[in-house]
Amino acid sequence: MISFNVPPCVGTELKYLEEAIRAHKISGDGQFTRRCSRWMEEKFGAHKVLLTTSGTAALDMALLLCGLEPGDEVILPSYTFSSTANAAVLAGARLVFVDIRPDTMNIDENKIEAAITERTRAIIVVHYAGVACEMDAIMDIARKHNLKVVEDAAQGVMAKYKGQYLGTIGDFGCYSFHETKNYSMGEGGAIVINDPAYIERAEILREKGTNRSKFFRGEIDKYTWVDFGDSFLPSELNAAYLWAQLERAEEINADRRRSWQAYYEALKPLAEAGKLALPVVPPECEHNGHMFYVKCRDLEERTRFIAFLKERGVGAVFHYVPLHSAPAGRKFGRFAGEDVYTTKESDRLVRLPMYFGLTGEDRKSVIDAVLRFCS
Ligand SMILES: *Cc1c(COP(=O)(O)O)cnc(C)c1O
């Protein structure tokens, strides 16, 4: 069986885990956490990066930092993971779902303004499959209406929009290092803070409401409880695992992009013959090979496609069921305008096996199975 996903492991993880254990520093914010966050700050050109316990926690922090009030509204796509929406609910907001574009599966920037009301405070964009949303248009809308922009870049680590790393464009960026993502620490994530004015509040929120981060930097001589907070910092053990991969991030990125390109080239004739649709990457976006999906004609064909691949030992899977049609989506929000593409396009999409180290041989088996289904 060719798995849909294999968690990344480059080989130095155990060495770094052992280092953390021998240093008797396994709680958060030790040397591995510092190495990881500094690496991201330098590589991505970010003001501040804080490791978190998950991508979900990073989103929670970002929405809490937006300072919403009960009844405020947050705009987001319905085609996303529940975490994107939960963060806004936790912060007290009502959800306003906006339709996606059929080409990138990202929020349709041209449908955002119609969804804005006097209660709108923030937009959460999701860079699906590591392909950027149309950030120039979205940032213009946000500036015009004085809205915060949170980038759910859980799938977008190392990907770029017009040369800028995803997560560094909006007010806050959120990464996930879950085992299904390009770089992993088991469970974990990071928040990117692009407006320095929020750094101190973010540190307090992450460290149980205390100013312990300031204390550790020697800026104050004792620490105390200064505001509301939670515990969003991950263990050094998780950070040690992540560090092994960040050191080799370019290699991992290149490997995934090679697999993506190989799928694309092999399946292009099917797309040209109208048998399948392939992912679209707009010229201003540089993707990170997070995901390779194809689109069937409809839900019925997709169900047969997944079963066909499974019989041939290929783990292909569908993705999100639109949140606005889920029980919690109906409870916490509404769809703005018409659902033209969200349900239709999500019903058609299937993800093919994609992970760091996917062999050419396995890729060929996947491609052969897809070709056979279409013939
Ligand atoms: C994975 C993912 C998350 C959640 O990340 P966790 O680290 O699993 O909490 C949120 N949003 C999107 C779009 C994701 O793909």
Describe the secondary-structure layout:
Layout: H1 13-22, H2 31-44, E1 48-52, H3 55-65, E2 73-77, H4 82-90, E3 94-98, E4 120-126, H5 135-145, E5 148-152, E6 160-161, E7 164-165, E8 172-176, E9 189-193, H6 199-206, H7 212-216, H8 236-246, H9 249-272, E10 285-286, E11 292-295, H10 299-311, H11 327-332, E12 333-335, H12 342-348, E13 349-352, H13 360-374
Parallel strand pairs: 2-3, 2-4, 3-12, 4-5, 5-8
Antiparallel strand pairs: 1-9, 6-7, 6-10, 8-9, 11-13
Bound molecules: pyridoxal-5'-phosphate (PLP).
Pyridoxal-5'-phosphate is lined by residues 54-56, 80-81, 83-84, 126, 152, 154-155, 176, 178, 189.
What does this structure look like?
The chain has 375 residues and is α/β, with parallel strands linked by helices. The chain folds into two domains: 13-246, Type I PLP-dependent aspartate aminotransferase-like (Major domain) (Aspartate Aminotransferase, domain 2, 3-Layer(aba) Sandwich), CATH 3.40.640; 249-374, Aspartate Aminotransferase, domain 1. Helices cover 38% and strands 14% of the residues. The protein contains 13 helices and 13 strands. An eight-stranded mixed beta sheet has the order 1-9-8-5-4-2-3-12, sandwiched between helices. The protein has a three-stranded antiparallel beta sheet with strand order 7-6-10, with no helix packed on it. It is globular. Residues 54-56, 80-81, 83-84, 126, 152, 154-155, 176, 178, 189 line the site of pyridoxal-5'-phosphate.
